[in-house]
Amino acid sequence: MVFRATINGVIGAAALLVVYFSVVSFISGRPFALSQFSRFWYFIVPLAAGFGVQIGLYTYLRNAVHQKNSSGSVLAVSGTTSTAAMLSCCGHYLVNILPIIGITGIVSLVGQYQIQLFWIGLIFNIAGIIYIGRKVIIFQRL
Q: Averaged in consecutive runs of 10 residues, what is the pLDDT profile of the chain (142 residues)?
């Protein structure tokens, strides 16, 4: 059960990095994506790792619930906080195509506060890990 959760966590972290590179490369090109990653790797890697930890904990919890066959326990856990945080942090890359749409004000605001958005993403990441971790601990005590 732990092995499968670990594998799912690693896959989740890798998938988030793939999404990051795909979105940024599609919008601004691969060289820009690589330069942004090298500039902000210390935010992007922990966001992806935290997302992987959340996926791993969620997988472990889901499997534990199914093994105990306790359908009475309702668990509402979201592992998407990191994805949403990372995508919101990367939203400023849309500045290259959004002038056509006419919403550059929002994108420039996001670009201006990129570092702060990374910090918010990390805070939500930690909160998600604590939340799911507490659910695992509580469930194991049952």
A: 92 91 85 90 92 89 76 42 47 47 55 80 87 86 82
Helix (H) or strand (E) holding 102: none
Tokens 């330069």 belong to 35
Which residues lie below 8 Å from residue 60, measured CB to CB, with a gap of 6+?
1, 2, 5, 136
The tally of domains found in the chain comes to 1
Distance (Å, rounded) from C-alpha 77 to C-alpha 104? Answer: 34
Question: Comparing C-alpha atoms, which of 133, 129, 137, 135 is closest to residue 49?
Answer: 129
Q: Which structural domain, as residue segments, surrounds residue 94?
A: 2-141
Alpha helices, H only, 69-113: 81-89, 98-101, 104-112
Q: What is the DSSP string of 121-140?
A: HHHHHHHHHHHHHHHHHHHH
Indicate the helix (H) or strand (E) that contains 73: none
- Coil, helix or strand for 82? helix
Residue type, 128: G
